[in-house]
Amino acid sequence: MTHTLHLTVQHPHPGLAIATVDGDVDVHTAPTLRSGALEIIRRGHPRLALDLEQVGFCDSAGLSAIIGIWHAAQAAEGSLSLANVPDRLMRMLSMTGVDSLLPVHATTSDAVAAVTDSPPASAKR
């Protein structure tokens, strides 16, 4: 396990960001993920996709950070989706029911297409 986590951000469409997460998401690094994602949302990108392909490990603190990011995105009338989720993390999402709250996509391209093809959260009310 490493105690470093890196976020690389792309902005393929207005209001949409893809954050590629590289590293383990645990009690030591979950605050970095959460604060980085919240900053992306605060900077005007409330629709966020997390590319998790490079995540080797995620514990309950990481899961909590993901849920907190989802709440923040919704509060900003945006959304959170996950892409390239490793099998081990997908099992955790399924066991906890988080996969029923968050859209999970096979690729970041699928996540972007799903977000850009759907109306904003405020239009769904």
The pLDDT mean sits at: 91
Uncertain parts: 119-125
Class per helix and strand makeup: alpha/beta
Give the overall shape, derived from the CA principal axes. Answer: globular
> Which strand-content bin applies to the residues?
25-35%
> Going across the major beta sheet, what is the strand order?
1-2-3-4-5
Q: Can you characterise this structure?
A:
It comes from Streptomyces bullii. Pfam families: STAS (PF01740). This is Anti-sigma factor antagonist. The chain is an alpha/beta fold. The protein has a domain of 80 residues: STAS domain (Transcription Regulator spoIIAA). Helices cover 38% and strands 26% of the residues. The chain has four helices and five strands; from the N terminus they run E-E-H-E-H-E-H-E-H. A five-stranded mixed β-sheet has the order 1-2-3-4-5, sandwiched between helices. Helix 1 runs parallel beside helix 2. The longest helix has 16 residues. The termini are far apart.
Give me a quick take on this structure.
The protein has 125 residues and is of the alpha/beta class. The protein contains 4 helices and 5 strands, in the order ββαβαβαβα.
Describe how the helices and strands are arranged.
Elements: E1 5-13, E2 16-23, H1 30-42, E3 47-54, H2 60-75, E4 79-83, H3 87-96, E5 104-105, H4 108-116
Parallel strand pairs: 2-3, 3-4, 4-5
Antiparallel strand pairs: 1-2
Helix pairs in contact: 1-2
